[in-house]
Design brief:
- The protein is α/β, with parallel strands linked by helices.
- It has one domain: 3-Layer(aba) Sandwich (Rossmann fold), CATH 3.40.50.
- Strand 3, helix 5 and strand 4 form a beta-alpha-beta unit.
- It starts with a helix and ends with a helix.
């Protein structure tokens, strides 16, 4: 990813580039910006973090309260836990490059976060939002009622999906050069 990012920097200002993803991709986007900053690279102009898996530990309240309500993730135990341990490969799950919510968000670009009230990663998203705001970062948090993990992308004809794409577009238009 860093090689691709460096290539993009050669052709344009990073402030005109956004980085983002949903679920694991949202967490990877946040972790990547931590790494870019640590390497002294120019940061992207904005981040889209859709229901980011920002904490691979079983810590967030919504992992418990939304277990069984989230029709996509369903439970942490099993697939999520196995994926977290496999991805970490013996490293500390609280390493910010693995669980970005544990990092320092000082100097991060404006960030758009989205989740739903039935999303097991609701707590990850809310905690990331609070850390961004505490670091003085412009961060918009959008929470959709009755929406599970990434339903706004899965149900593309839903009002939430249409709203999300309009909101993200406006956010990028406002924050990218």
């Amino acid at each position: 990813m860093v090689t691709v990012y460096r290539h993009l920097l050669e052709s344009r200002s990073a402030k005109s580039i956004a980085i983002g993803g949903t679920s694991t991709g949202g967490g990877l986007s946040l972790a990547s910006v931590h790494k870019f900053r640590d390497l002294g690279l120019e940061l992207p102009g904005a981040i889209y973090a859709g229901t980011p898996w920002a904490d691979l530990t079983k810590t967030g309240d919504s992992l418990f309260t939304n277990e069984g309500l989230d029709r996509v993730l369903v439970t942490y135990d099993g697939l999520l836990k196995g994926a977290a341990l496999l991805y970490a490969d013996g490293h500390d799950l609280k390493d910010p490059l693995i669980s970005p919510v544990y990092g320092d968000f000082e100097g991060f670009p404006p960030t758009y976060l989205i989740t739903g009230t039935r999303d097991m990663f609701l707590s990850d998203t809310a905690r990331t939002h609070r850390k961004l705001r505490a670091a003085g970062v412009v961060a918009d948090l959008h929470v959709y009622e009755g929406v599970g993990h990434a339903d706004y992308l899965i149900l593309v004809d839903s009002p939430e999906s249409k709203d999300m794409f309009q909101e993200v577009g406006a956010f990028f238009k406002k924050h990218l050069e």
